[in-house]
Amino acid sequence: MKHEPQHLFEQASPAVMADKELMISLSNVQKWYGDYHALRDINFDVYKGERIVVCGPSGSGKSTMIRCINRLEEHHKGQILVEGIELNDNLENLEQVRCEVGMVFQHFNLFPHMSVLENLILAPTIVRKMPVKEATELAMMYLERVHMVAKAHSYPGQLSGGQQQRIAIARALCMKPRIMLFDEPTSALDPEMVKEVLEVMVELANDGMTMVCVTHEMGFAKTVADRVVFMDQGQIIEENNPEDFFAHPQHERTRDFLSQVLSH
Ligand SMILES: Nc1ncnc2c1ncn2[C@@H]1O[C@H](COP(=O)(O)OP(=O)(O)O)[C@@H](O)[C@H]1O
Ligand SMILES: [Mg+2]
């Protein structure tokens, strides 16, 4: 494995599951792209404070599944509930869910013509109708949290990939989400920048954020995840706590995948 920053994660503590509040629930979810059956009967629950890592080969449906959780993609069959709100054609439901769910992508998607601070206050002022002063204070607080206060007035193009991704995380947090989804947040980064982004994610995990992370950073999965979910060909093949997932993968496909990602 390229990055094995185990020491990074020593402070990660198990999620508190006492209240077992169901945050995300997918039941019998199916999705097609044209004729292509991209999600095949997905059943998947996430409780408050859980940290889930989703892994699997390219094209297995990982992005499709997490994008369905805030309806960036529509599912065709089955049911998706986010904090008990059903995702369907009801736009009010969608708006409510989008306010609760923050998302971080592989490519940071910051607006290049806006400063870091302007990027951060955009959604809170427009979507949440927050006064600029309050949104700015909030933005500075989250910049502090991702250790980027000094770059508040820089433009994205002046920042490294790792710094831009930390800004993208701060931007998502400015909407005060109760759930954070990450879709391969470190896979477009140079290796030396992966650590700084993972550190920010570990800090978030330690704060009790409910997180679903698609990532191939198996060091992160081993030490931070409460559960690892393995997908292949549009299905969840197996899921388990990280110790058992890595020590005793049940399926041939999981073993093949792990031998590939853990061997380099
Ligand atoms: N917008 C789309 N239109 C058609 N096919 C798509 C689209 N998005 C994804 N797919 C296909 O669906 C499958 C799953 O894709 P994706 O969820 O992106 O996989 P992963 O994130 O695991 O790499 C792939 O075969 C991909 O080519
Ligand atoms: Mg993907």
From TrEMBL:
Q: Which residues form the signal peptide?
A: none
Gene3D superfamilies recorded = P-loop containing nucleotide triphosphate hydrolases (3.40.50.300)
* GO molecular function list: ATP binding
- Family annotation (CDD domains): ABC_HisP_GlnQ (cd03262)
Q: Which InterPro entries match?
A: AAA+_ATPase, ABC_ATPase_HisP-typ, ABC_transporter-like_ATP-bd, ABC_transporter-like_CS, MetN_ABC_transporter-like, P-loop_NTPase
Top-level taxon in the UniProt lineage: Bacteria
Tell me where in this chain the ABC transporter domain is found.
24-258
Cite the entry's keywords alphabetically: ATP-binding, Nucleotide-binding, Transport
- Family membership, please give it: Belongs to the ABC transporter superfamily.
Protein name stated in the entry: Amino acid ABC transporter ATP-binding protein
